[in-house]
Design goal:
Oligomer: single chain
Number of strands: 9
CATH superfamily of the largest domain: P-loop containing nucleotide triphosphate hydrolases
Bound molecules: adenosine-5'-triphosphate, magnesium ion
Number of helices: 16
CATH topology of the largest domain: Rossmann fold
Distance between the termini: 39 Å
């Protein structure tokens, strides 16, 4: 049975999916007003592609979702400003993905979003009077994708369908007519680092430049980590089409504490009657151990809660909660450390510690000098060892100094914590 239901919640407070582009997402997003402003102003100021770079799980997709929702909400409630609608789904490219299939996926996602949001707006009945943009959208009959199947060959069906969708977008978001704003469905291409190398990423994105990225009625945001967005931004073919990347960094420890509190409130059946086996202090401690990564903190907090329940423990006082939390941290980090220690030779260990302590957990083999190596090649075999042990995540090495393609994983941060514990050093004082 769901432990959180037993503890008085309606749903888990430790959801790790991106915050959605709706009222709930807006409410749950803590801090970040400067980034929201940056994304909104980039979305609204030109038709160029917005780009966002930042470590995995730092909050990029959530930020873009909420920024797009704010623009949408403003328009729907006042009838003023740019007319944008956040797409219900984020899209992903992969090295094997056929570009034509990707285009169809996006167009279908857009149709579904417009149909669904149209119904939502109609149902709310709060359409600003005399606004042609909303009127166009709601008056154009929704596209029914099921109706499109007929006896024509498949390729032709698809071509016709595309034309129909693109015409429909032009009616809803007429280019350059009257509105004086940049309008469209806001679509995200997420996790560009899945494309592995900047060269593959550039090629895929360049292929979309004159099709998907130039269609009327779609606003694009590209998100990625491990420096891949910088790799794309350097493409001459994309020059003039991409806005310089917004670099997203982590939230502060006190904001992390506020995330816990806002999620408890938002998911509790009765806010005063919920139970959790940890307090704000333990949550913030875990956030620090995991190098200020909020997704990993949410995920490991869930692991801790499951452990508490597995062991039939039920700490009540703050002191009991802290004691059990630190015990769990010791067990978890100790187990990982025991499993890898014999395989972690002295030199690889030294690379790991430099990666953690000196360069803050994100680096590339181009930083070889800081690691005490004469060239990237001699450093690489140690990175492979760390990668195999799951202590770092490394995407393909391209010799690009801007790309920090090696990142310490949550497992790596727990190993570091375990090492400090062994030495009797507290993480908070480190
Ligand atoms: N400012 C914030 N307030 C509340 N929750 C947040 C905030 N930032 C991120 N989160 C939460 O952290 C988790 C990770 O966020 P998100 O998926 O947006 O990160 P990301 O950078 O897009 O990750 P990835 O690199 O994997 O795509 C989600 O559960 C999200 O709800
Ligand atoms: Mg994301």
């Amino acid at each position: 049975m769901n432990i959180y239901k037993r503890w008085g919640f309606e749903s888990t407070p430790f959801e790790t999916m991106p915050l959605p582009p709706n009222e709930k997402g807006e409410k749950l997003l803590i801090g970040r007003s400067n980034y929201l402003k940056k994304i909104r102003s980039r979305l609204c100021s030109s038709s160029n592609i917005v780009t966002v770079e930042g470590q995995n799980g730092i909050g990029k997709t959530s930020l873009v979702n909420v920024a797009a929702y704010e623009i949408y909400k403003n328009f729907i409630s006042t009838g003023e400003g740019p007319f944008m609608i956040p797409c219900d789904i984020a899209f992903q490219l992969s090295p094997e993905k056929d570009i034509e299939i990707f285009i169809d996926e996006v167009l279908f996602g857009i149709v579904q979003t417009l149909n669904r949001k149209g119904q939502e707006v109609k149902a709310k009945g709060s359409i600003p009077k005399g606004n042609d943009a909303v009127k166009n959208w709601l008056d154009v009959p929704p596209l029914d994708l099921k109706d499109m199947h007929n006896n024509k060959p498949k390729g032709m069906q698809e071509a016709e369908l595309r034309v129909k969708i693109l015409n429909w977008l032009q009616v809803i978001f007429p280019y350059g007519k009257g509105l004086g704003h940049i309008n469209g469905v806001v679509c995200i291409v997420d996790n560009l680092e899945l494309l592995q190398t900047s060269a593959i990423a550039r090629k895929q994105i360049e292929q979309l430049r004159d099709t998907l990225f130039s269609y009327t009625g779609i606003r694009w945001v590209l998100c990625g980590s491990l420096g891949i967005v910088f790799g794309i931004a350097s493409s001459p073919r994309l020059e003039g089409r991409l806005i310089d990347p917004i670099e997203v960094d982590g939230i502060s420890p006190s904001e992390a504490g506020n995330i816990l509190e806002s999620r408890v409130l938002a998911n509790a059946k009765y806010p005063n009657e919920v139970y959790l086996p940890l307090t704000r202090s333990e949550f913030i401690h875990l956030f620090g151990v995991l190098n200020n990564n909020i997704r990993n903190t949410l995920s490991y907090t869930n692991n801790y809660c499951l452990w508490i329940d597995d062991e039939n423990l039920h700490p009540i006082t703050n002191e009991e909660k802290a004691t059990l939390y630190y015990k769990w941290m010791e067990i978890v980090s100790g187990k990982i450390l025991d499993a890898i220690q014999t395989q972690l030779k002295r030199k690889a260990m030294s690379v790991f510690l430099t990666g953690v302590k000196v360069v803050g957990g994100a680096f590339s083999t181009e930083d070889f000098e800081e690691f005490g190596f004469a060239n990237p090649g001699t450093m690489r075999s140690h990175i492979n060892t760390l990668h195999k042990l799951g202590l770092v995540h490394a995407s393909r090495d391209e010799g690009d100094k801007r790309r920090k393609n090696i990142q310490v994983t949550p497992k790596g941060w727990l190993v570091y914590y375990g090492l400090l514990l062994k030495k009797g050093i507290s993480v908070a004082s480190n």
